[in-house]
Every structure is written in structure tokens, then in C-alpha cells.
Amino acid sequence: ETGVTQTPRHLVMGMTNKKSLKCEQHLGHNAMYWYKQSAKKPLELMFVYSLEERVENNSVPSRFSPECPNSSHLFLHLHTLQPEDSALYLCASSSDRGHSYNEQFFGPGTRLTVL
Amino acid sequence: KNEVEQSPQNLTAQEGEFITINCSYSVGISALHWLQQHPGGGIVSLFMLSSGKKKHGRLIATINIQEKHSSLHITASHPRDSAVYICAVRSVSGGGADGLTFGKGTHLIIQP
User: Which DSSP string do the residues of B54-90 spell out, in sequence order?
Assistant: First the structure.
């Protein structure tokens, strides 16, 4: 399997549930990203991990908790979400070394609905 | 804060027409992306550029760093080009991994 994969592709959850989104990249990249795309709004950066360390947290509520156990895997743990958190959650990866920047490759996204 | 503005927001054209989508941004950047998003959500990176011009098949992307402006052109447009086209920029920073700032996207429909 190649590229960036995300599971599940669709998720419906209640406000009291706890769930996790998974992202896996098979590109040998060392940076991974979570983005959120809400209806009628631009994509928004949520988190950035570089070499498994979180380097950016874009003022995201604590009900979203990222985890990067290794350079190939990225999780987004969800708990006590609100209906307004319903959105498409996209994962991306890139290969970044110091001041060198390469393009980001996106996964297919997880369509999340919070009831 | 870097603002990314795209125009037009919506564009409907006939098959074969030459398409131009514009992107303006407000601060210095290290790279600009053009992305394509089809219904269902998947995003494909079309171009990443920091200067000049790039061409891939019927797609051409240009950037003018001084004017903080980029354009995406589609020649001989086809119904399969129908998608949302998104401009995204990476601000100048200290280096390493950085998230992107996105425009709202241009919804393109090419009619047969």
C-alpha cells in the first residue's frame, strides 16, 4: 500500500463517545499534519508533528488529542465532541529537513459526524 | 496573520475554454501550493512553487513573489477538470515542518 491512508473513512459518534482517527503514511516522510475542513470554511491546520514531536498546536480545543507514536503513524483521539466538530479531517505528510521543505501529500480524509 | 484570497469563488465554463484561477496572499511565503479536491474530499497536490512557472499537462501555475500573486491556468478544459481548486501557502519561517494556510477554494464546473 502506498501514499497516505486514513481510517475510518466515515465516522458517526455521539457527544459522549471516545473515538480515534488513524493516519498512516508509506512515503518515508518525517512530518505529519492534521487539518480540519468544515462546511463552507477553508481548510484549517490543527497539529504538526516533526520527527514525532509536536511542533505546532493551532489553538485546538483539548477534546482533540493527537498522538504520533512513530514517523509513519498519526492518531487523533476524540472525546466529548460537539456537533460543530463535524467536518472532514485530513491527514498529510511531508519530508522536511531543517530549512528544506517538500510538498505535502494528503490522505483521503475521515468524514466525521457528531450527533 | 497570512490571508489567502482566491477568485473567483465559483466558475462555470464550457468544455474547451481556457480557465484562470487567481490567488493572492498577504505576507512573505516560502512556498505556494495548488491543490485539487474532488467530491468526497480527497486532495491531490497539483503544484508546489516558490518562483516562476510550472507546467504539467494542461495545467500551468505561475507565481509573482513581488506582487504576492499566483495563477492556475487550465488549457482545453474538460468536464473531468470539475473540482474545487485550493491555493495554500507556507509562510516564511525558521524552517522545518510548517502547516499550510488555505484559501477558500474555487469551485470549477466544466460543462460538456
Answer: EEETTEEEEEETTTTEEEEEESS--GGG-EEEEEEEE
Rounded Cα distance, B39 and A113, in Å: 17
Q: Is the pLDDT of residue A39 over 90?
A: no
Q: How far apart are CA B77 and CA B108, in angstroms?
A: 10
Q: Which residue has the cell 475521515?
A: A110
User: A-chain residues within 8 Å CB-CB of B48?
Assistant: 102-103
User: What is each CA distance from A106 to A36, A59, A81, A90, in whole angstroms?
Assistant: 12, 22, 24, 7
Sequence-ordered list of residues with C-beta below 8 angstroms from that of B107, at least 6 positions apart, any chain? B9, B10, B11, B84
Residues B39-65, mean pLDDT to the nearest whole number: 91
Taking CB atoms and an 8 Å cutoff, what residues of chain A touch B90? 101
Q: pLDDT of A95-115, one tens digit each?
A: 876 555 678 899 999 999 999
* pLDDT tens-place string over residues B87-104: 999 877 645 567 788 999
Of A90, A112, A84, the closest CA to residue A19 belongs to: A112
Take residue A56 and report the three cell numbers written for it: 505546532
- Mutation pick from B100, B101, B106 vs chain A, by most beta carbons of A within 10 Å, is B100
- pLDDT average, residue stretch B42-47: 89
